[in-house]
Specification:
Distance between the termini: 17 Å
Structural class: alpha+beta
Order of helices and strands: HEEEEHEEHEEEH
Largest sheet: 9 strands, antiparallel
Radius of gyration: 18 Å
Number of helices: 4
Oligomer: single chain
Shape: globular
Strand content: 35-45%
Number of strands: 9
């Protein structure tokens, strides 16, 4: 019996759930010569839009200022390893990074971060956050533009390509990955 394909709303819900549950991912930026650079980062999500925190003296801050096109990946890998492979899911995003300068949005990022990372309340990480030109800590908002969602809970190697709309707040289009790359004919 063929498995049912999830709706766009179900895919979006699964992605938001993953972004709230998993805090560490890999962020790729592009240097001035077009070479990629990747870093492990904490990601705090507000729906499909994510925020990341760095410092004004870092390479990634300079690179995102020069070129806001970024990519990140975040996923769930079951602790059982291969035997738990039917629970594996991951997200790859191509997006645009914007330095957060509005004090109200900075406060929202801190709130979202503390909700998502309870351990952060026991640190002083967010005690002295200022707007970018007054301190060394900075936040970036990453709005998704395109992506890939893979969810083995549906079936092994199930993947779709995503296009986002509404400033990255909603999935606008979903296409079967295998059809797009020519591994399967259009239905």
């Amino acid at each position: 019996m063929p498995s049912l394909e999830p709706s766009v709303a179900e895919i979006q819900e699964a992605i938001v759930e993953l972004l709230r549950a998993e805090e560490i991912g890999t962020l790729a930026t592009i240097d001035s010569e077009g070479r990629p650079s990747a870093s492990y980062m904490h990601f705090a999500s507000d729906g499909l839009v994510v925020y990341t925190h760095t410092f004004s003296y870092t390479r990634k801050h300079l690179q995102m200022q020069q070129n806001p096109n970024v990519s990140y990946t975040i996923g769930y890998l079951p602790p059982e390893g291969y035997s738990g492979r039917r629970e594996t899911r991951y997200l790859q995003i191509q997006g645009r990074a914007t330095l957060v300068t509005d004090p109200a949005e900075i406060q929202r990022v801190v709130e979202v971060s503390l909700e998502q990372f309870p351990w952060a309340a026991d640190t002083s990480m967010y005690d002295n956050i200022k707007v970018p030109d007054q301190g060394q800590q900075v936040f970036y908002r990453i709005e998704p533009v395109e992506g890939l969602w893979s969810d083995n809970r549906i079936r092994l190697l199930w993947r779709v390509l995503l296009e986002f709309g509404d400033g990255g707040k909603a999935i606008a289009n979903v296409e079967d990955y295998n059809v797009v790359v020519g591994r399967r004919a259009r239905r």
